[in-house]
Design goal:
heterodimer; A: 326 residues; six-stranded mixed beta sheet; 11 helices; 39% helix; 26% strand; B: 182 residues; four-stranded parallel beta sheet; 8 helices
């Protein structure tokens, strides 16, 4: 079995995570748990940890800010309409929320804490507030192109993801994929910043917004995987907008594409149908580089995980056990 | 959450009937079906790997192993003493002694057989004698046939009722199940 970017993670003092460890992640990981248990926060921690490249403070700040921006549009407008000073203060406000946070995996060991001013440690590199100043020369709002939110996928994000897929020379695969989804559609493209599909029946390009959110999400998943070869993709509430009859096809594409792209996928779900489909398709494809991660709280109300490998997961499903967290 | 570890689906169904008789609420989650006796006694069974992780997360508090005694002449793991020593060893290997218990399923008089033997042990002596004589027929005497035949016998002998769970022979098993869910 291939090595993956994240095979374990330790999270301390981040949102609902006090002192959390989980290990045994595979190439594709489906995460289940009750409402508000911390599924999205878990993926955000994995996202933050895996987004830092070459101990770069810039990549960390971008990851932290993009987490806040995608959680709250308020942050987006705060940052978007702000002067440079306001921008810096907003960024520092965001960083304040990460006091004492610690994210550790095989890729990065990150600690953020405050002693009068901000201190950040990435692996063996230490940064203080002065080191951040140069970052504030450009008031850009970072986006999480490898994190597919459950709420909204912007045309800009689709554009970026499709560009990544094109760089990987996978246009043909994307076209085949949308055609499998809907036989009327034979081509996907971005024309004048607008995502469109070519309809055989209408003999013209149709704005993607004319179709349901499901198609948009489908396309974003596949493009995101190709755009993140040898990296990670995070998908929140993967079943959103997807009809149950399409779930098997979706998992087939995710399992096969992620293997070809050597891309590690983390996805959350509430849906039993989605979990059953994941089990069914991985079994049919004999794809054992998968895991199911259930999140729940122990007697002390501490967040814990149950990471099931292929065999354990299949056994639990076969026995009709509840796997959607506890 | 408590778990009952049993050999097969039929065992699960029968134990479910006893739980219903005892007015104990249960779900599929309360059962682990090992598949057969050999699997149940295998400390490396994948089910036990998951079980251990769930215990670490405080999601499982108590476990009851239910295992057929079978017949000593058939296998070295069979018979009352062999089965008991194997299940004690399994609980030790899995470090589950403190939170688990076991019950050996058999005819309480002869100390051999299966869950079906326990169920059938509650019929009258006359009927039981008839069954024993019929079961001596070699053609019928393999475990699978044996279990099905015993069950069918029971049905024939008591057509108007399910199993008589009020019978004394079920006392210990009912106690173990009640304690498990308490």
């Amino acid at each position: 079995m291939a090595k993956h970017l994240l095979e374990y993670i330790e999270i301390k003092d981040f949102k609902c995570f006090k002192d959390f460890k989980a290990e045994g992640f595979k190439r594709v990981n489906l995460i289940g748990g009750k409402n508000n248990v911390g599924k999205t926060a878990f993926m955000e921690a994995c996202f933050i940890n895996s987004s830092v490249r070459d101990t770069s403070i810039k990549s960390l700040i971008k990851a932290l800010v993009s987490v806040e921006v995608s959680r709250s549009q308020e942050w987006f407008y705060n940052l978007h309409d702000s002067s440079r000073n306001e921008y810096i203060n907003s960024i520092l406000d965001i960083l304040n929320k990460y006091h004492n946070s610690h994210f550790k995996s095989i890729v990065n060991d990150i600690t953020i804490f405050f002693e009068k001013e901000i201190n950040i440690k990435i692996n063996d590199e230490k940064y203080i507030q002065d080191d951040l100043d140069y970052l504030f020369n450009e008031t850009v709002i970072p986006q999480r192109y490898n994190f597919i939110s459950s709420l909204y996928i912007s045309s800009k994000q689709l554009d970026e993801l499709y560009a990544g897929a094109k760089i990987a020379r996978k246009r043909k695969e994307i076209d085949e994929f949308i055609n499998n989804f809907d036989s009327d559609l034979i081509e996907y493209d971005i024309i004048k910043d607008t995502p469109v599909c070519f309809s055989k029946n209408l003999e013209s390009y149709v704005n993607l917004n004319e179709y349901g959110n499901g198609l948009k999400r489908y396309i974003s998943f596949v493009c995101a995987i190709w755009a993140n070869e040898n990296g990670c993709v995070f998908i929140d509430e993967i079943e959103n907008g997807v009809h149950h009859s399409h779930l098997d096809m979706l998992w087939k594409v995710i399992l096969e594409t992620s293997k070809d792209a050597n891309c590690q996928v983390f996805a959350t779900t509430h849906s039993k149908e989605c979990i059953d489909s994941y089990a069914r398709v991985s079994k049919k494809l004999e794809e054992d580089d998968i895991a199911f991660v259930a999140l729940g709280k122990n007697k002390k109300s501490e967040l814990k995980s149950l990471v099931l490998d292929f065999e354990m997961f299949q056994t639990e499903i076969l026995q009709d056990h509840e796997v959607r967290g506890w | 959450m408590v778990k009952i570890v049993c050999e097969g689906k039929t065992d699960k169904n029968k134990i479910s009937e006893i739980l219903e008789y005892l007015n104990i609420e249960y779900t599929n989650d309360n059962f682990i079906i090992a598949g057969n006796k050999q699997n149940l006694l295998d400390k490396n069974l994948v089910h036990y790997k998951t079980l251990k992780l769930k215990i670490e997360n405080d999601t499982i508090s108590k476990i009851l192993f239910l295992i057929d005694v079978d017949y000593e002449k058939d296998d070295k793991t069979h018979g009352y003493k062999n089965t008991e020593s194997r299940i004690i060893q399994l609980r030790k290997d899995l470090v589950l002694e403190e939170i688990s218990d076991y019950y050996l399923l058999c005819n309480l008089d002869t100390k051999d057989g299966f869950l079906e033997s326990l169920l059938l042990s509650t019929v009258s002596d006359d009927v039981k004698k008839c069954f024993d004589e019929l079961l001596e027929c070699k053609e019928l005497n393999n475990k699978h046939n044996h279990k099905n035949i015993l069950e069918e016998f029971y049905r024939i002998s008591k057509p108007n009722s399910p199993y008589d769970f009020s019978h004394d022979n079920f006392y210990d098993l009912k106690q173990k199940l009640t304690e498990l869910f308490n």
